[in-house]
């Protein structure tokens, strides 16, 4: 009976040691993953810092350029941007000419509303049947 208990005790101790070894391996893997994540995080932080530095430098160059160009405009006697844009008048369409033509999509949807099949609309508009069917489907 004593030998049986000793064998059982050794088996239990062996299982406990095996369990401890497995847990140690998992802990090591977790620590390695954490180190990798910290490394990646620091690399990303360095990358963002370098981008931010580049953007700041570019802003300084642009600011210097803008200030030098505004000085040049004042010396040459040109007005500010307000004067340039206040004189602009957008073109006005001629009301006597009626050029309105509905788009292809509008025509197709109107034909669909009037009960035309895709094949009939394709023939009337000189387009492909598949193209008209796709327009029908996309309008749903």
């Amino acid at each position: 009976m004593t030998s049986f208990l000793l064998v059982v005790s050794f088996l239990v101790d062996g299982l406990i040691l095996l369990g401890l070894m497995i847990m140690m391996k998992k802990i090591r893997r977790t620590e390695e993953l954490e180190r990798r994540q910290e490394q990646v995080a620091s690399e990303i932080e360095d990358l963002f810092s370098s981008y931010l530095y580049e953007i700041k430098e570019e802003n300084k160059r642009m600011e210097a350029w803008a200030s030098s160009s505004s000085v040049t405009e004042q010396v040459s006697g040109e007005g500010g941007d307000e004067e340039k844009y206040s004189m602009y008048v957008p073109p006005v369409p001629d009301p006597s000419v009626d050029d309105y033509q509905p788009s292809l999509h509008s025509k197709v949807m109107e034909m669909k509303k009037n009960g035309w099949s895709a094949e009939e609309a394709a023939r009337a508009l000189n387009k492909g049947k598949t193209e008209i069917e796709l327009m029908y489907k996309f309008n749903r």
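The chain is about 80% helix and 0% strand. The mean pLDDT is 85.
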